[in-house]
Amino acid sequence: MITLLLRKKTLIIKATFCLLMFLMPAFILQAQLKKSKYVVIGYVGGYRGLTDMSMVNPEKLTHINYAFVNVRNNRAWLTHERTDTINFRNLLTLKKKNPDLKILISIGGWTWSKNFSDAVLTDTARKAFAASAVDLIRKYKLDGVDIDWEYPGLQGDHNIVRKEDEQNYTLMFADLRRELDALEKETGNKKLLTAAVGGFSRFLQHTEMGKVSQYLDYINLMTYDYFQDTLGIAVHHTNLFASDKYKTDNSADKAVSAYLAQGVPASKLVMGIAFYGRSVMVKDSAQNGVGMKTGEHIWVGGYTHLKDSLLNRNGFTYYRDNAAGAPYLFKASTKQFITFDDEWSVKNKCQYMVDHQMAGVMFWEYADDKKEYLLDAIDERLDAK
């Protein structure tokens, strides 16, 4: 009798084990699908030199855009080649924890967009520039190219500007896509082409985003830094909607609508999130500083610092502009106004992205929130979808 019971127990254990082995791939696939339904793109800075990549949590990201590669002598150029190559190597080790993680080089940025116009001026120049960019990802075994031209047809940081920038911007992406397609055939692996683009209407007036979008996998909307485009008043720098406290042409919602109107598919649009704050002194304490005339701009750093040191501390009071979906801090004694994204606004942006069937979210930049307060908020909200 004991022997018979033992045999039955053994058969039950074996059957249970076989069932688990049968179901396990389905569980794993379900988890992967849940994680990969939306992209989470983090910009990781290497422009300062050697960067501690151990701070990056690859399990909460789908893509890393390494910032930045320069444009020099009409080519994609590693200004800090010695440290860039070390940073690339350390980023690639993150794939041990997340084999599906994609790592791209981001070319340009605010400081290194000066020479884009020259680099893409002629057919010959564009092809050589595209080849140089793709040669970098070939050499370092990376997954794609992100173009952050700030901005075609606009002055930016003392850019070379031409009226031809509008069309050449489109042609540049066509050449990049051809070079990446050739690399795909060589390697058998998908190579990505993305762009970081202005989250304001003037960007669309100097580009052909409806045409450009056919070449791109993702379009990262820089729906932040709106403080730069004002009439000398304190505004939210990364608001989801327009505020009812001042008149503005800039919000993430308006940017999304404008890109859709240009024929850009929602499925390629990526919502931008700021991991850092902007601050200004204002002339009046009315409306807790919102919409008031401004004076000196002040550096305040990233969200980890804001949350740990200033949120309802040191004389600062936390407020929400519910119409704009934007949090802010105000210190009445000094009239200092600070605008930023927090967990509340990030979750609202994620919900908006889901509701509008967008591709996902991206943020600038990882080092500004090393404690991952905002990345955790993204992870929590998207995991629930």
Please write out the topology:
Elements: H1 2-36, E1 39-45, E2 63-72, E3 75-77, H2 81-93, E4 102-109, H3 116-119, H4 123-140, E5 144-149, H5 165-187, E6 192-198, H6 201-205, H7 209-212, E7 218-222, H8 252-261, E8 269-274, E9 278-282, E10 294-298, H9 303-310, E11 317-321, E12 326-331, E13 336-339, H10 343-355, E14 360-364, H11 373-383
Parallel strand pairs: 1-2, 1-14, 2-4, 4-5, 5-6, 6-7, 7-8, 8-14
Antiparallel strand pairs: 2-3, 9-10, 9-13, 11-12, 12-13
Protein model, in words:
The chain has an 8-stranded parallel barrel with strand order 1-2-4-5-6-7-8-14, surrounded by 5 helices. The longest helix has 35 residues, at 2-36. β5 (144-149), α5 and β6 form a beta-alpha-beta unit. Helices cover 37% and strands 21% of the residues. It is of the alpha/beta class. The chain contains 11 helices and 14 strands.
Count helical runs: 11
Overall 3D form: globular
Helix content: 25-40%
- Identify the strand order in the major beta sheet: 1-2-4-5-6-7-8-14
Low-confidence stretches: 1-6, 15-34
- On the 0 to 100 scale, the average pLDDT is 92
